[in-house]
Amino acid sequence: MLARQIAQFRPQVAVVADDTALEKLRKLLKQQGTSALELAAGSQARIAAAAAPEAGFVMSAIVGVEGLEATYEAVRLGKRVGLANKEVLVAGGKLVTGAMRASGAELIPVDSEHNGAHQCFRAGLRGEVSKLILTASGGPFRETPLADLIRVTPEQALNHPTWKMGPRITIDSATLMNKGFEVIEACWLFDLPPENVDVVVHPQSKVHAMVEFNDGSVIAQISATDMRMPIQYALTYPERAKAPVPILDWSQPARWTFDPPDFVKFPLLKLAYQAQEAGGAATATLNAADEIAVEAFLAGEIPFPAIAATVADTLDRMSPHDPISIPEVLEADRAARRMAREVIASQRAAARTESAVQA
Q1: What's the CA gap between 294 and 58, in Å, rounded?
Q2: Is the pTM higher than 0.85?
Q3: What is the sign, positive or negative, of the torsion defined by CA atoms of 157, 163, 167, 168?
Q4: What are 231-244's pLDDT values in tens digits?
Q5: Are strands 13-16 and 207-213 parallel, antiparallel or unpaired?
Q6: Which CATH number fits domain 279-359: 3.40.50.300, 1.10.10.10, 3.40.640.10, 1.10.1740.10?
Protein backbone atom coordinates (compact mmCIF):
# COMPACT_ATOMS: atom_id res chain seq x y z
CA MET A 1 0.00 0.00 0.00
CA LEU A 2 2.81 2.42 0.84
CA ALA A 3 4.47 1.70 -2.50
CA ARG A 4 1.19 2.48 -4.31
CA GLN A 5 0.76 5.69 -2.31
CA ILE A 6 4.28 6.79 -3.18
CA ALA A 7 3.55 6.22 -6.87
CA GLN A 8 0.34 8.24 -6.64
CA PHE A 9 1.39 11.16 -4.44
CA ARG A 10 5.14 11.39 -5.16
CA PRO A 11 6.39 12.44 -1.69
CA GLN A 12 9.93 13.71 -1.22
CA VAL A 13 10.56 11.37 1.73
CA ALA A 14 9.15 8.04 2.93
CA VAL A 15 10.08 6.51 6.29
CA VAL A 16 9.35 2.97 7.49
CA ALA A 17 9.81 1.15 10.79
CA ASP A 18 13.02 -0.81 10.24
CA ASP A 19 15.64 -1.95 7.72
CA THR A 20 13.66 -5.07 6.77
CA ALA A 21 10.66 -2.97 5.76
CA LEU A 22 12.99 -0.52 4.01
CA GLU A 23 14.49 -3.23 1.81
CA LYS A 24 11.03 -4.57 0.95
CA LEU A 25 9.87 -1.07 0.01
CA ARG A 26 12.88 -0.52 -2.25
CA LYS A 27 12.14 -3.76 -4.12
CA LEU A 28 8.46 -2.88 -4.55
CA LEU A 29 9.27 0.59 -5.88
CA LYS A 30 11.75 -0.89 -8.34
CA GLN A 31 9.22 -3.49 -9.52
CA GLN A 32 6.56 -0.88 -10.20
CA GLY A 33 9.01 1.50 -11.85
CA THR A 34 8.68 4.33 -9.34
CA SER A 35 11.63 6.71 -9.52
CA ALA A 36 13.91 7.19 -6.53
CA LEU A 37 13.09 9.38 -3.56
CA GLU A 38 14.59 9.72 -0.11
CA LEU A 39 13.89 6.53 1.86
CA ALA A 40 14.78 5.93 5.51
CA ALA A 41 13.92 3.74 8.48
CA GLY A 42 13.85 3.87 12.26
CA SER A 43 12.90 6.22 15.06
CA GLN A 44 15.46 8.92 14.24
CA ALA A 45 14.24 9.04 10.65
CA ARG A 46 10.67 9.45 11.88
CA ILE A 47 11.74 12.32 14.11
CA ALA A 48 13.64 13.96 11.25
CA ALA A 49 10.60 13.71 8.94
CA ALA A 50 8.23 15.16 11.55
CA ALA A 51 10.69 17.97 12.29
CA ALA A 52 11.41 18.85 8.64
CA PRO A 53 10.76 22.52 7.83
CA GLU A 54 8.68 21.44 4.82
CA ALA A 55 6.23 19.61 7.12
CA GLY A 56 3.74 22.29 8.11
CA PHE A 57 1.16 19.76 9.32
CA VAL A 58 2.02 16.48 11.04
CA MET A 59 -0.52 13.68 11.39
CA SER A 60 0.49 11.56 14.38
CA ALA A 61 -1.06 8.15 13.80
CA ILE A 62 1.64 5.63 14.78
CA VAL A 63 0.13 3.20 17.28
CA GLY A 64 1.57 3.19 20.81
CA VAL A 65 4.48 5.02 22.40
CA GLU A 66 6.45 4.47 19.17
CA GLY A 67 4.84 7.70 18.00
CA LEU A 68 5.76 9.77 21.06
CA GLU A 69 9.24 11.03 20.14
CA ALA A 70 8.39 12.27 16.64
CA THR A 71 5.16 13.87 17.81
CA TYR A 72 6.90 15.62 20.70
CA GLU A 73 9.53 17.02 18.34
CA ALA A 74 6.85 18.34 15.97
CA VAL A 75 5.08 19.99 18.90
CA ARG A 76 8.33 21.40 20.27
CA LEU A 77 8.94 23.06 16.91
CA GLY A 78 5.51 24.71 16.94
CA LYS A 79 3.83 22.72 14.18
CA ARG A 80 0.14 21.98 13.84
CA VAL A 81 -0.34 18.32 14.76
CA GLY A 82 -3.32 16.14 13.99
CA LEU A 83 -3.31 13.75 16.93
CA ALA A 84 -4.66 10.27 16.18
CA ASN A 85 -2.40 8.58 18.74
CA LYS A 86 -3.80 8.31 22.28
CA GLU A 87 -0.55 7.13 23.83
CA VAL A 88 1.24 10.42 23.10
CA LEU A 89 -0.82 12.21 25.75
CA VAL A 90 -1.58 9.19 27.94
CA ALA A 91 2.14 8.51 28.45
CA GLY A 92 3.65 11.96 27.95
CA GLY A 93 0.81 14.44 28.39
CA LYS A 94 2.58 16.76 30.82
CA LEU A 95 5.68 17.09 28.65
CA VAL A 96 3.82 17.35 25.34
CA THR A 97 1.37 20.02 26.52
CA GLY A 98 4.22 21.90 28.19
CA ALA A 99 6.08 21.94 24.86
CA MET A 100 2.87 23.04 23.12
CA ARG A 101 2.46 26.05 25.40
CA ALA A 102 6.10 26.99 24.98
CA SER A 103 6.14 26.75 21.16
CA GLY A 104 2.61 27.79 20.27
CA ALA A 105 1.95 24.49 18.51
CA GLU A 106 -1.63 23.36 17.84
CA LEU A 107 -2.96 19.90 18.70
CA ILE A 108 -6.06 19.05 16.65
CA PRO A 109 -7.54 15.77 17.95
CA VAL A 110 -8.52 13.15 15.38
CA ASP A 111 -10.03 10.59 17.75
CA SER A 112 -13.79 10.85 17.15
CA GLU A 113 -14.71 11.78 20.73
CA HIS A 114 -12.01 14.40 21.20
CA ASN A 115 -12.57 15.74 17.72
CA GLY A 116 -16.23 16.12 18.62
CA ALA A 117 -15.30 17.86 21.86
CA HIS A 118 -12.98 20.20 19.96
CA GLN A 119 -15.95 21.21 17.80
CA CYS A 120 -18.22 21.68 20.83
CA PHE A 121 -15.70 23.94 22.56
CA ARG A 122 -16.02 26.36 19.64
CA ALA A 123 -19.57 27.17 20.81
CA GLY A 124 -18.45 29.23 23.81
CA LEU A 125 -15.58 30.69 25.78
CA ARG A 126 -13.17 28.32 27.52
CA GLY A 127 -13.96 29.81 30.94
CA GLU A 128 -17.65 29.08 30.45
CA VAL A 129 -17.15 25.29 30.28
CA SER A 130 -18.19 23.30 33.34
CA LYS A 131 -17.95 19.72 32.06
CA LEU A 132 -16.93 17.53 29.13
CA ILE A 133 -18.92 14.35 28.44
CA LEU A 134 -17.38 11.59 26.31
CA THR A 135 -19.59 8.84 24.91
CA ALA A 136 -18.75 5.13 24.81
CA SER A 137 -20.44 2.43 22.78
CA GLY A 138 -20.14 0.07 25.75
CA GLY A 139 -18.41 -2.57 23.65
CA PRO A 140 -19.62 -6.12 22.98
CA PHE A 141 -20.11 -6.98 26.68
CA ARG A 142 -22.27 -4.06 27.72
CA GLU A 143 -25.10 -6.43 28.68
CA THR A 144 -22.98 -9.47 29.61
CA PRO A 145 -23.25 -10.44 33.31
CA LEU A 146 -20.06 -9.90 35.28
CA ALA A 147 -19.80 -13.61 36.16
CA ASP A 148 -19.77 -14.56 32.47
CA LEU A 149 -16.76 -12.42 31.52
CA ILE A 150 -14.37 -15.16 32.66
CA ARG A 151 -15.49 -17.22 29.65
CA VAL A 152 -15.06 -14.47 27.04
CA THR A 153 -12.89 -15.49 24.07
CA PRO A 154 -10.62 -13.23 22.00
CA GLU A 155 -12.92 -13.76 19.00
CA GLN A 156 -15.90 -12.47 20.98
CA ALA A 157 -13.95 -9.51 22.33
CA LEU A 158 -12.79 -8.55 18.83
CA ASN A 159 -16.38 -8.30 17.60
CA HIS A 160 -16.99 -4.59 18.22
CA PRO A 161 -20.62 -3.57 17.62
CA THR A 162 -19.93 -0.18 16.02
CA TRP A 163 -16.36 0.55 14.91
CA LYS A 164 -13.82 -1.38 12.81
CA MET A 165 -10.46 -0.97 14.53
CA GLY A 166 -7.16 -2.75 15.20
CA PRO A 167 -6.96 -5.65 17.69
CA ARG A 168 -5.61 -3.73 20.66
CA ILE A 169 -8.02 -0.81 20.40
CA THR A 170 -10.93 -3.24 19.93
CA ILE A 171 -10.02 -5.15 23.10
CA ASP A 172 -9.52 -1.87 24.94
CA SER A 173 -13.02 -0.87 23.85
CA ALA A 174 -14.37 -4.15 25.21
CA THR A 175 -12.79 -3.47 28.63
CA LEU A 176 -13.56 0.31 28.46
CA MET A 177 -9.82 0.92 28.86
CA ASN A 178 -9.96 2.81 25.59
CA LYS A 179 -12.44 5.20 27.18
CA GLY A 180 -10.16 5.55 30.17
CA PHE A 181 -7.33 6.56 27.87
CA GLU A 182 -9.66 9.08 26.27
CA VAL A 183 -10.44 10.59 29.68
CA ILE A 184 -6.71 11.06 30.30
CA GLU A 185 -6.18 12.49 26.82
CA ALA A 186 -9.11 14.89 27.27
CA CYS A 187 -7.68 16.19 30.54
CA TRP A 188 -4.48 17.22 28.73
CA LEU A 189 -6.08 18.41 25.49
CA PHE A 190 -8.66 20.63 27.15
CA ASP A 191 -6.89 21.43 30.44
CA LEU A 192 -9.56 19.79 32.62
CA PRO A 193 -9.28 17.93 35.92
CA PRO A 194 -10.52 14.30 35.81
CA GLU A 195 -13.62 15.13 37.86
CA ASN A 196 -14.78 17.45 35.07
CA VAL A 197 -14.66 14.71 32.43
CA ASP A 198 -17.60 12.29 32.44
CA VAL A 199 -18.29 9.15 30.42
CA VAL A 200 -21.74 7.97 29.31
CA VAL A 201 -22.57 4.75 27.48
CA HIS A 202 -24.25 5.51 24.16
CA PRO A 203 -24.50 2.27 22.12
CA GLN A 204 -25.72 4.00 18.95
CA SER A 205 -22.44 5.99 18.68
CA LYS A 206 -24.04 8.97 16.96
CA VAL A 207 -23.25 11.53 19.68
CA HIS A 208 -19.48 11.59 20.03
CA ALA A 209 -19.00 14.22 22.72
CA MET A 210 -20.89 16.90 24.65
CA VAL A 211 -19.74 20.04 26.42
CA GLU A 212 -21.75 21.47 29.29
CA PHE A 213 -21.49 25.22 29.81
CA ASN A 214 -21.99 27.03 33.11
CA ASP A 215 -25.45 28.29 32.11
CA GLY A 216 -26.68 24.69 31.84
CA SER A 217 -26.53 24.52 28.04
CA VAL A 218 -25.11 21.33 26.57
CA ILE A 219 -23.63 21.36 23.06
CA ALA A 220 -23.30 17.96 21.35
CA GLN A 221 -21.33 16.91 18.28
CA ILE A 222 -23.26 14.35 16.22
CA SER A 223 -22.16 12.61 13.02
CA ALA A 224 -21.96 9.27 11.24
CA THR A 225 -19.61 6.66 12.68
CA ASP A 226 -16.96 7.18 10.02
CA MET A 227 -13.41 8.28 10.83
CA ARG A 228 -13.06 10.18 7.55
CA MET A 229 -15.02 13.07 9.06
CA PRO A 230 -12.71 13.80 12.03
CA ILE A 231 -9.64 13.20 9.86
CA GLN A 232 -10.88 15.77 7.35
CA TYR A 233 -11.76 18.21 10.14
CA ALA A 234 -8.20 18.07 11.47
CA LEU A 235 -6.72 18.57 8.00
CA THR A 236 -8.95 21.53 7.06
CA TYR A 237 -9.45 23.25 10.46
CA PRO A 238 -10.66 25.94 11.01
CA GLU A 239 -12.56 25.59 7.74
CA ARG A 240 -15.15 22.89 7.06
CA ALA A 241 -14.99 21.05 3.74
CA LYS A 242 -17.79 19.14 2.04
CA ALA A 243 -18.73 15.99 3.97
CA PRO A 244 -16.79 12.90 2.85
CA VAL A 245 -19.26 10.64 4.70
CA PRO A 246 -23.02 9.97 4.60
CA ILE A 247 -25.11 12.66 6.27
CA LEU A 248 -27.46 11.46 9.00
CA ASP A 249 -30.98 10.89 7.71
CA TRP A 250 -33.26 12.81 10.05
CA SER A 251 -36.39 11.63 8.23
CA GLN A 252 -36.00 8.16 9.75
CA PRO A 253 -37.08 7.35 13.32
CA ALA A 254 -34.27 6.71 15.77
CA ARG A 255 -33.83 6.14 19.49
CA TRP A 256 -30.64 7.13 21.26
CA THR A 257 -29.90 6.01 24.82
CA PHE A 258 -27.42 7.19 27.44
CA ASP A 259 -26.43 5.22 30.55
CA PRO A 260 -23.75 5.56 33.22
CA PRO A 261 -20.77 3.18 32.91
CA ASP A 262 -20.49 0.13 35.18
CA PHE A 263 -17.22 0.69 37.06
CA VAL A 264 -17.53 -2.70 38.79
CA LYS A 265 -17.76 -4.69 35.57
CA PHE A 266 -15.23 -2.46 33.82
CA PRO A 267 -12.67 -1.50 36.51
CA LEU A 268 -10.07 -0.25 34.01
CA LEU A 269 -12.10 2.91 33.46
CA LYS A 270 -11.89 3.70 37.17
CA LEU A 271 -8.15 2.90 37.15
CA ALA A 272 -7.66 5.46 34.38
CA TYR A 273 -9.27 8.19 36.49
CA GLN A 274 -7.10 7.19 39.45
CA ALA A 275 -3.91 7.14 37.37
CA GLN A 276 -4.58 10.64 36.04
CA GLU A 277 -5.21 11.86 39.58
CA ALA A 278 -1.96 10.25 40.74
CA GLY A 279 0.05 11.92 37.98
CA GLY A 280 3.71 11.24 37.26
CA ALA A 281 4.43 7.98 35.45
CA ALA A 282 1.15 6.36 36.53
CA THR A 283 -0.57 6.88 33.18
CA ALA A 284 2.46 5.65 31.23
CA THR A 285 2.43 2.56 33.47
CA LEU A 286 -1.30 2.13 32.90
CA ASN A 287 -0.85 2.17 29.13
CA ALA A 288 2.17 -0.14 29.05
CA ALA A 289 0.65 -2.70 31.42
CA ASP A 290 -2.58 -2.73 29.44
CA GLU A 291 -0.77 -3.36 26.16
CA ILE A 292 1.07 -6.34 27.62
CA ALA A 293 -2.11 -7.69 29.23
CA VAL A 294 -4.08 -7.38 25.98
CA GLU A 295 -1.32 -9.24 24.12
CA ALA A 296 -1.48 -12.02 26.71
CA PHE A 297 -5.27 -12.26 26.44
CA LEU A 298 -5.17 -12.42 22.63
CA ALA A 299 -2.52 -15.16 22.90
CA GLY A 300 -4.80 -17.18 25.20
CA GLU A 301 -2.46 -16.82 28.18
CA ILE A 302 -4.89 -15.04 30.54
CA PRO A 303 -8.68 -14.74 30.79
CA PHE A 304 -10.52 -11.53 29.96
CA PRO A 305 -10.93 -10.27 33.58
CA ALA A 306 -7.19 -10.75 34.15
CA ILE A 307 -6.47 -7.82 31.83
CA ALA A 308 -7.75 -5.43 34.50
CA ALA A 309 -6.12 -7.44 37.29
CA THR A 310 -2.75 -7.28 35.53
CA VAL A 311 -2.94 -3.52 35.07
CA ALA A 312 -4.02 -2.93 38.69
CA ASP A 313 -1.26 -5.16 40.07
CA THR A 314 1.38 -3.51 37.88
CA LEU A 315 0.33 -0.05 39.06
CA ASP A 316 0.56 -1.21 42.66
CA ARG A 317 4.06 -2.64 42.21
CA MET A 318 5.62 0.31 40.39
CA SER A 319 7.26 3.03 42.47
CA PRO A 320 5.82 6.50 41.77
CA HIS A 321 7.99 9.10 40.04
CA ASP A 322 7.54 12.03 37.67
CA PRO A 323 9.46 11.75 34.35
CA ILE A 324 11.07 15.03 33.31
CA SER A 325 12.00 14.05 29.73
CA ILE A 326 10.72 11.90 26.88
CA PRO A 327 13.53 9.32 27.39
CA GLU A 328 12.40 8.99 31.03
CA VAL A 329 8.82 8.43 29.90
CA LEU A 330 10.00 5.70 27.53
CA GLU A 331 12.06 4.09 30.31
CA ALA A 332 8.98 4.13 32.57
CA ASP A 333 7.09 2.45 29.74
CA ARG A 334 9.74 -0.28 29.42
CA ALA A 335 9.86 -0.85 33.17
CA ALA A 336 6.08 -1.18 33.34
CA ARG A 337 6.11 -3.72 30.52
CA ARG A 338 8.69 -5.82 32.36
CA MET A 339 6.63 -5.65 35.53
CA ALA A 340 3.41 -6.55 33.71
CA ARG A 341 5.07 -9.65 32.25
CA GLU A 342 6.16 -10.65 35.77
CA VAL A 343 2.61 -10.17 37.01
CA ILE A 344 1.22 -12.35 34.23
CA ALA A 345 3.81 -15.05 34.95
CA SER A 346 2.77 -14.99 38.63
CA GLN A 347 -0.91 -15.26 37.66
CA ARG A 348 -0.27 -18.25 35.43
CA ALA A 349 1.82 -19.97 38.09
CA ALA A 350 -0.93 -19.45 40.66
CA ALA A 351 -3.53 -20.80 38.23
CA ARG A 352 -1.44 -23.93 37.61
CA THR A 353 -1.05 -24.48 41.36
CA GLU A 354 -4.78 -24.08 41.94
CA SER A 355 -5.54 -26.49 39.12
CA ALA A 356 -3.12 -29.07 40.54
CA VAL A 357 -4.68 -28.77 44.01
CA GLN A 358 -8.17 -29.25 42.60
CA ALA A 359 -7.00 -32.29 40.63
Answers
A1: 29
A2: yes
A3: negative
A4: 999 999 999 999 88
A5: unpaired
A6: 1.10.1740.10
